[in-house]
């Protein structure tokens, strides 16, 4: 091989290497997109993740996202611990806390939060219960309340109502039904007397003759940090940059969502575009015209910058301990990694 040929060959090899390297680069400068699976429920309250995905915010952070959908919070926590899911956005559950105690999970941010002036979770009763006199939350004493599982957010809300109204927690009968859909069916048919749920579901149910609204959860749990962002302890400790990039994209999605449907500072056209985006994931089995109102009704505040209300998380942890659903030894440091977002 001649000197010129060897030189040309070496140059071509370098150029090829650079081309391959460039092809592997993402807009963020990392070699390749990190593939992550995000756990979610098909609720309007999970829209920050959907917006971040649809508008390319995850991609801009070098993340290739796939969603995995769940029917309740606790199975999502198990999926995080097992590695089947990388990030979850849902309510704190007993299962999540127990997995945190075992060193498997960390809460790294906040999502949905009750806020004065913004419609939040509503307390519902069946028409039969309402006609029998259950017209205020104080009247829930001696009646049944639907939950997905023991240790779920529904369980927590039922007991917080009992505490404020001054009757024993045992005087509200809990009915574990595993899935949100099953609870809805039981309420509409009068198999349970009461439930509490986010507004996009609550308002839709209240339009039907089988269900009545009797109160708001915000009156019983002010500032309630309804949902949180969580990941595996391994991600939090060994891949903090991955967590930061996820939260950055998630927060941009939350900003867009809040501007369109909570603060309503965007134009009518931009608001409708947001609803249509969410409709791909929420009430997707309904025509847009029938889904639009329910999606708009579910627009609760998603915390800016994934800010976390630690006082609310502490209250939830204290309740879990009081019910002996989690070990008394679990601390906030065990459950929460506060290094990623601002906290209250």
From TrEMBL:
One of its GO terms (biological process) is alkanesulfonate transmembrane transport. Residues 1-32 form the signal peptide. Keywords: Signal. GO terms for cellular component: periplasmic space. Its main location: periplasm. It is found in: Periplasm. Residues 35-269 form the Solute-binding protein family 3/N-terminal domain. SMART domains: PBPb. Belongs to the bacterial solute-binding protein SsuA/TauA family. This is ABC transporter substrate-binding protein. It comes from Stappia taiwanensis.
């Amino acid at each position: 091989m001649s000197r010129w040929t060897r030189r040309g060959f070496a140059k071509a090899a370098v150029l090829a290497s650079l081309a391959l390297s460039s092809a592997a680069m993402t807009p963020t400068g990392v070699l390749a997109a990190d593939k992550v699976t995000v756990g979610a429920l098909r609720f309007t309250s999970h829209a920050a993740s959907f917006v971040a995905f649809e508008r390319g915010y995850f991609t801009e952070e070098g993340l290739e996202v796939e969603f995995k959908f769940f029917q309740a919070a606790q199975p999502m926590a198990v999926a995080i611990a097992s590695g089947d899911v990388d990030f979850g956005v849902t309510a704190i559950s007993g299962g999540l806390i127990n997995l945190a105690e075992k060193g498997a999970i960390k809460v790294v941010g906040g999502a949905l939060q009750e806020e004065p002036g913004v419609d939040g979770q509503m307390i519902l009763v069946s028409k039969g219960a309402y006609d029998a006199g259950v017209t205020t939350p104080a009247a829930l004493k001696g009646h049944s309340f639907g939950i997905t599982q023991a240790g779920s957010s529904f369980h927590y809300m039922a007991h917080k109502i009992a505490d404020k109204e001054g009757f024993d927690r045992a005087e509200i009968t809990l009915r574990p039904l595993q899935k949100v859909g099953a609870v809805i069916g039981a309420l509409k048919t009068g198999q349970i007397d009461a439930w509490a749920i986010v507004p996009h579901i609550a308002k839709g149910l209240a339009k039907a003759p089988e269900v009545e609204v009797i109160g708001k959860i915000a009156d019983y749990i002010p500032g309630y940090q309804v949902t949180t962002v969580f990941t595996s302890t391994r991600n939090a400790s060994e891949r903090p940059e991955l967590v930061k990039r996820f939260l950055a994209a998630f927060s941009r999605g939350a900003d867009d969502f809040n501007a369109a449907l909570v603060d309503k500072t965007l134009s009518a056209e931009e608001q409708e575009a947001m609803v249509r985006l969410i409709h791909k994931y929420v009430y997707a089995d309904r025509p847009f015209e029938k889904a639009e109102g329910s999606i708009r009704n579910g627009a609760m505040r998603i915390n800016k910058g994934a800010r976390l209300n630690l006082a609310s998380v502490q209250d939830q942890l204290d309740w879990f301990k009081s019910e002996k659903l989690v070990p008394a030894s679990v601390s906030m440091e065990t459950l929460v990694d506060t290094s990623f977002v601002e906290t209250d």
